[in-house]
């Protein structure tokens, strides 16, 4: 497990407050930020502006101002683990990774020296090419005196989906990875009025004539042009000109004096002024709104006819759609009828970026899955990786490999140049704990485990001298024969995990580990039965010379209870002991002969 000391934790507390100061691409291209901190800030404090969200495919140019602390005092005010009053000498921004494509950043200084410069700013600029929440790694360096600490942090930058607005329509979520679902808003609404028509071609094989079409799904990477047309046919029909091309009437001496009589569908008559001998062709400029239905146009001559009235030269029938030439025998007129129709045509594009192939995690399977194993995970991609454990991104873990030091569910996310991501399958790694250290002490050259109860239920022991295995030395004790480094390795036989306690030991030539007693005991019968047992247990052994010993019971917490003690005993020992006062469980039975101790694991059942 990666651990940090108290001093490192102090830096983490300070720098977490500064993480938003730089969250973008490369420290180039965005110069000239303006520092703007509130006037009422304390001199020794921590402050930073809000971090504005960005929008995909929209220009982004923002300044973020901050104030750095001069000492650790502002941090200590909220974190009692931090010592107040320590002066901060220098803070530098080293590197930022995992950024939205298309964004750059630059601060107003390479390093900040809080004793003279506490205020600073960063300018963020560019055009983000993908939407989403980006987990950014920021690496900062803090100096206190001669000590320099580099720390990695992670924070979010939100890039909202783009809303592409043009004269015809607005597109929401018009770009994305792998598959996007785009919604369209018509910018030329009919508001319930007639005379509006629409035509959509979405570029994905679908079309629509609806004013507000359904959402469209684009499931294959590519660029999809969206064509839009709105036809607005809401203006009136207006008769603006009547041209007399040929007329079937004449005067005896001069040409006819033309005028027009226009009768609408309701029988109402509109009569123009007359014009004396204009000749043909002749134009009457008008501005008459036309109703639906049929009109009658009469071309007249103001000169008196044979019966003392005006001559009716020609008759024509027309309606709103009769724009052009009308013919009646040898006579003809040309009508100019205006009916304005607005047409709005717009083309925009949907961008679907490719999703990368799912990364694969490779690793060498260890002999055992223990906490001290070196397990290196390797991504199938050489760059743009982010390692994740238990659904949480690991700070600074962006290399193609990651060293596992804790149990957890591991995965790696790869981000391509378009900002699209793919995540590996989850790799569940469960590391078994190491056995407790088998600490031993030295009693007259007899090295013996201090607390046997901490050993695993099923274990093996092996003694070493100067890193050399001692054949046959696999008991809880070992008789030292020379000065040197002695190690005791314990193995959990269930998991295969091992742990080793090593200590330098000094041999005492005047002590013999109670060898004579050991020989007498080991060469005799030492028996504990039944095991497991209920109620009573029997202890039996023989010894040839007078010996003082003590019989103890040690529970799994190392607590010792004396069952019996004998002074100057010699011969065969056979005795039963009641365990009615003990609870069911595992215990160690110890026979302490002074220079040597024998241990047996016993199991009490109820």
Low-confidence stretches: 1-27, 515-520
Mind describing the biggest β-sheet?
A: 5 strands, mixed
Question: Strands of the biggest beta sheet: in what spatial order?
Answer: 2-9-8-4-6
Beta-strand residue percentage:
over 45%
CATH class of the largest domain: Mainly Beta
Overall CATH architecture of the largest domain = Sandwich
Could you tell me the radius of gyration in angstroms?
49 Å
* Tally of individual domains: 6
Please tally the β strands and state the result: 46
The proportion of residues forming helix, as a percent range, comes to under 10%
- What gross morphology would you assign? elongated
Distance between the termini: 41 Å
Number of helices: 3
CATH topology of the largest domain: Immunoglobulin-like
- Structural class, please? mainly beta
Mean pLDDT: 84
Structure write-up:
Helix content is 4%, strand content 49%. It contains three helices and 46 strands. The longest helix has 11 residues, at 6-16. Residues 1-27 and 515-520 have low confidence and may be disordered.
Descriptive key words:
single chain, 606 residues, mainly beta, Immunoglobulin-like, 6 domains, 5-stranded mixed β-sheet, 3 helices, disordered N terminus
């Amino acid at each position: 497990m990666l651990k940090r000391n108290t001093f490192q934790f102090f830096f983490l507390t300070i720098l977490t407050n500064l993480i938003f100061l730089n969250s973008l691409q490369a420290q180039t291209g965005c110069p000239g930020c303006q520092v703007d901190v509130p006037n009422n800030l304390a001199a020794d404090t921590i402050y930073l502006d809000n971090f504005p969200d960005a929008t995909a495919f929209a220009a982004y140019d923002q300044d973020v101002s901050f104030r750095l602390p001069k000492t650790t005092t502002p941090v200590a005010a909220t974190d009692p683990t931090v010592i107040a009053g320590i002066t901060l000498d220098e803070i530098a921004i080293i590197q930022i990774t995992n950024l939205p494509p298309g964004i750059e950043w630059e601060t107003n200084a390479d390093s900040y020296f809080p004793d003279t410069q506490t205020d600073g700013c960063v300018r963020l600029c560019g055009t983000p090419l993908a939407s989403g929440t980006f987990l950014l790694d920021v690496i900062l360096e803090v100096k206190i005196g001669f000590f320099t600490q580099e720390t990695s942090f992670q924070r979010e930058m939100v890039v909202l989906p783009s809303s592409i607005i043009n004269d015809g329509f607005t597109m929401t979520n018009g770009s994305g990875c792998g598959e996007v679902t785009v919604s369209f808003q018509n910018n030329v609404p009919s508001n319930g009025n007639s005379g509006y028509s629409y035509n959509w071609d979405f570029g994905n094989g679908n079309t629509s004539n609806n004013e507000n079409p359904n959402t469209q799904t684009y499931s294959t990477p590519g660029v999809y042009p969206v064509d839009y047309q709105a036809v607005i046919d809401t203006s009136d029909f207006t008769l603006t000109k009547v041209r007399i091309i040929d007329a079937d009437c004449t005067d005896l001496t001069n040409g006819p004096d033309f005028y027009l009589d226009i009768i609408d569908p309701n029988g109402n008559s509109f009569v123009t002024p007359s014009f004396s001998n204009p000749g043909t062709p002749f134009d009457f400029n008008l501005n008459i709104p036309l109703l639906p239905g049929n009109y009658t146009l009469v071309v007249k001559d103001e000169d008196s006819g044979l019966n003392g009235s005006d001559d009716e030269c020609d008759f024509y029938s027309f309606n709103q759609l009769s724009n052009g030439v009308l013919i009646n025998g040898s006579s003809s007129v040309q009508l100019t009828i205006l009916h304005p129709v607005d047409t709005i045509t717009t083309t925009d594009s949907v961008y679907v970026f490719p999703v990368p192939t799912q990364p694969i995690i490779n690793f060498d399977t260890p002999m055992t899955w223990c906490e001290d194993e070196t397990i290196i995970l390797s991504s199938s991609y050489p760059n743009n990786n982010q390692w994740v454990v238990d659904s949480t991104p690991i700070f600074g873990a962006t290399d193609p490999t990651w060293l596992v030091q804790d149990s957890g569910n591991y995965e790696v996310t790869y981000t391509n140049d378009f900002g699209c991501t793919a995540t590996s399958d989850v790799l569940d790694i469960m590391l078994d704990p190491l056995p407790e250290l088998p600490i031993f002490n030295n009693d007259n050259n007899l090295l013996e485990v201090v607390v046997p109860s901490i050993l695993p239920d099923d274990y093996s022991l092996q003694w070493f001298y100067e890193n050399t295995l001692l054949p046959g030395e696999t008991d809880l004790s070992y008789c030292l024969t020379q000065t040197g480094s002695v190690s005791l390795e314990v193995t959990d036989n269930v998991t295969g995990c091992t742990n080793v306690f090593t200590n330098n030991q000094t041999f005492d030539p005047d002590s013999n580990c109670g060898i004579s007693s050991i020989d007498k005991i080991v060469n005799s019968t030492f028996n504990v039965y039944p095991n497991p047992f209920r109620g009573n247990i029997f202890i039996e052994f023989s010894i040839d010379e007078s010996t003082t010993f003590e019989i103890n019971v040690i529970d799994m917490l190392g607590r010792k209870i004396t069952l019996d003690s004998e002074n100057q005993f010699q011969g065969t020992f056979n005795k039963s002991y009641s365990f009615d006062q003990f609870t069911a469980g595992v215990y160690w039975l110890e026979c302490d002969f002074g220079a040597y101790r024998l241990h047996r694991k016993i199991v009490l059942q109820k």
